[in-house]
């Protein structure tokens, strides 16, 4: 998986963002014995955001979540329940460098019906 998008729920806007397990393969490798990895993502305005993705230390399910940096991003973008966020991994073919993009989108409602999403 090179990326994912998610419509935000209450926990996503207040504490942490749960991410699909498949997205772990797109992140930098976890150090041996570590259950967290840090990475940076650039938004639509070119601002760089530092995030930490962590998994459970034990148990049958990893349950990856973005913690460090996530709440600051939510507050900065004024994200609310129902808004959408998208993370995408890019590989520069010429230099073989990896980069990540993050895009926040506001929910657009007309007469109470979700009409679509607009980039912030």
What does this structure look like?
The protein is built from 2 helices and 8 strands. With 120 residues, the protein is mainly β. A hairpin with a 2-residue loop joins β7 and β8. The mean pLDDT is 91. It comes from Salix viminalis.
**Class by SSE composition:** mainly beta
The helix fraction, in percent, is 10-25%
Mean pLDDT: 91
N-to-C series of helices and strands = EHEEEEHEEE
Beta-strand percent range: 35-45%
Query: In angstroms, what is the radius of gyration?
Result: 15 Å
Task: Give the number of helices.
Answer: 2
Q: Main β-sheet: number of strands, strand sense, barrel status?
A: 4 strands, antiparallel
Ranges with pLDDT <50 over ≥5 residues? none
Biggest sheet strand order reads 1-6-7-8
Quote the distance from N terminus to C terminus.
Answer: 24 Å
Counting DSSP E segments of at least 2 residues, the number of strands comes to 8
Dominant shape: globular
Summarize the structure in short.
This protein is mainly beta and 120 residues long.
Compile the SSE list and pairings.
Blueprint: E1 3-7, H1 10-14, E2 17-18, E3 36-42, E4 48-54, E5 65-66, H2 70-77, E6 84-91, E7 98-110, E8 113-119
Antiparallel strand pairs: 1-6, 2-5, 3-4, 4-5, 6-7, 7-8
